[in-house]
Amino acid sequence: MTVMEQRGAYRPTPPPAWQPRTDPAPLLPDAEPYRVLGTEAAAQADPELLRRLYAQLVRGRRYNVQATALTKQGRLAVYPSSTGQEACEVAAALVLQERDWLFPSYRDTLAVVARGVDPVEALTLLRGDWHTGYDPHEHRVAPLCTPLATQLPHAVGLAHAARLKGDDVVALALVGDGGTSEGDFHEALNFAAVWQAPVVFLVQNNGFAISVPLAKQTAAPSLAHKAVGYGMPGRLVDGNDAAAVHEVLADAVRRAREGGGPTLVEAVTYRIDAHTNADDATRYRADAEVETWREHDPIELLEREMNARGLLDEDTRRTVREAAEEMAADLRARMNQDAVLDPMDLFSHVYAEPTPQLREQQALLRAELEAEQEGAH
């Protein structure tokens, strides 16, 4: 299939510029974030899915707490906690099939772990250790992306290439509200819509791009409304409602897989912890604001619903918490071991075929290391 043969591809005779290409009405998001928990729709939620979401939420909360503690112990250089945003992260991981791809940002370690990556490997980049820390192709998880929004065009490119090859693959790309102010965000959405690429964009709107509130980034009614300008549907969802986020993402992934093109989902949530361990959040937000959002905690919301339906007894709660503690203990023990570093790894995976300059530098370093070792003896 060529680019010109694709649905939605550019044609030599487009409609006049004044004439809309797409009816905007079906693309507009709802006025209020979509919710499931605490509504009549909750009765239709799959009990097994709720149990899976709950187990991953509790595990994720414990993971965030343990990783934050590791920064204070000097075992991590930095950690961007996703406490308060666990519902977005877990739903993003669970909604994908094994052949699909996840494109995370630097705050999405929890989604990476929920996708099946080893908890220690997910922290390797933040530890300042070897490369990504995990094999992206093995797990179908792109490297944790520190530059803002640069993972989004990559997700579009992979999804578009998969479609050209006839592969049944959907890419799900995560980004924060701050990332929507980057050019890569707009370029990715535009290309995705023009190419009708099977990609889903999940914006975790946690209120702040470090210290800059959303109101200083955009005057749009919502970030989901931005989808209309590119010709794709926008969905607005309560980002602390795990069941709602999973449902909305599942619909978007299904639509993409069936050839319906991309969707922009805005999940309204809140970053309870500071931006990272190097940030002082008290300088730009009040404690009362944080406490208000604590009352909308994603774990408590799900617990309340499961208790009401008789899906969560004390044995189940204890089993889930014990499993989370075991994960944290294993993470703590392995992170407290000093990494075994090989300086020659500097030259690994730079090029598929090393350049003459790289070979020369490699030989020089090897000679220096050997001379140093001989001198020690």
From TrEMBL:
<dbReference type="InterPro" id="IPR001017">
    <property type="entry name" value="DH_E1"/>
</dbReference>
<dbReference type="InterPro" id="IPR050771">
    <property type="entry name" value="Alpha-ketoacid_DH_E1_comp"/>
</dbReference>
<feature type="domain" description="Dehydrogenase E1 component">
    <location>
        <begin position="68"/>
        <end position="330"/>
    </location>
</feature>
<dbReference type="GO" id="GO:0003863">
    <property type="term" value="F:branched-chain 2-oxo acid dehydrogenase activity"/>
</dbReference>
<protein>
    <submittedName>
        <fullName>2-oxoisovalerate dehydrogenase E1 component alpha subunit</fullName>
        <ecNumber>1.2.4.4</ecNumber>
    </submittedName>
</protein>
<feature type="region of interest" description="Disordered">
    <location>
        <begin position="1"/>
        <end position="30"/>
    </location>
</feature>
<keyword id="KW-0560">Oxidoreductase</keyword>
<dbReference type="InterPro" id="IPR017596">
    <property type="entry name" value="PdhA/BkdA"/>
</dbReference>
<dbReference type="Pfam" id="PF00676">
    <property type="entry name" value="E1_dh"/>
</dbReference>
<dbReference type="InterPro" id="IPR029061">
    <property type="entry name" value="THDP-binding"/>
</dbReference>
<keyword id="KW-0786">Thiamine pyrophosphate</keyword>
